[in-house]
Amino acid sequence: MTMPQRALVVDDLAGSRAWLGRALDLAFPGIEVQQASNLAEGLGLIDPPPPLALIDLGLPDGSGVQLIEALRAKSAQTLCIVATVFDDDAHLFPALRAGAEGYVLKDQSHEALAEMLRGIAAGQPPLSPSIARRLLRHFQPLPQPAPIAAAEVLTARETDVLRLIAKGLTLAEAAGLLDLSRHTVAGYLKAIYRKLSVNSRAEAALEATRRGLVNY
Predict the structure, then answer these.
(1) Which of 116, 139, 162 is the last residue before a domain boundary?
(2) Which of 11, 88, 141, 187 could form a disulfide linkage to 16, CB 3.0–4.6 angstroms apart?
(3) Which residues cross the membrane (predicted)?
């Protein structure tokens, strides 16, 4: 992208608009900056579409995502950058899906933001470091659960006992259903505690479920 000559700033707070305007002027000296304080004003300033737009998400009459969608519908060349206090997935990913190509947080100086904006000409998307890390984590494969050691694997009978105990049955009730003595069931339960490194029936049931040893 070449150095933009015009930019749109949409934010309901005057202080934030001034902060964004200073960052734009520092990054692109002489740039023409138009400002809007809400969604309706922003929509009124996108014809013709600006080459660059800095957009807050929490606007008093709607979401900045709506403005991003409108801008992308008018011009695929407009670079939409979110400038917000929201750093959670619920705000980040809808904005990216709408077409935002940058996401910066309002927790930095305008000089730091200007430095990120200068990278636009080199094709570097403006992303706050915490947002970049969140994106990387999102697309990393989920860690695989550690394999269960052979000594920790329950036998079929132990699994039967655990399933019944986890359902709230007493030792005597479990023994009756399995046609075993209460003493034998107690021995199985003791082995279950040892294998799963737990000290109560509730802990045993939770640990077995976590490891996928028992299906309810």
Answers:
(1) 139
(2) 11
(3) none
Q: What is the pLDDT of residues 83-131, one digit of tens each?
A: 998 888 888 999 999 999 999 998 888 899 999 898 876 778 888 888 8
Please indicate, yes or no, if residue 1 is contained in any of the structural domains.
no
Are 24 and 130 found together in one domain?
yes
The structure's pTM equals 0.63
Residue-number span of the structural domain to which 170 is assigned: 150-210
| b (16+ CB within 10 A) / e for 44-68 | ebbeebbbbbbbbbebeeebbbbbb
Tokens of 208: 């077995």
Chain centroid to CA 135: 8
Cβ partners under 8 Å of residue 46, min gap 6: 8, 53, 67, 70, 71, 74, 78
Q: How many domains does the chain have?
A: 2
Q: Dihedral sign for Cα 37, 43, 44, 49, please.
A: positive
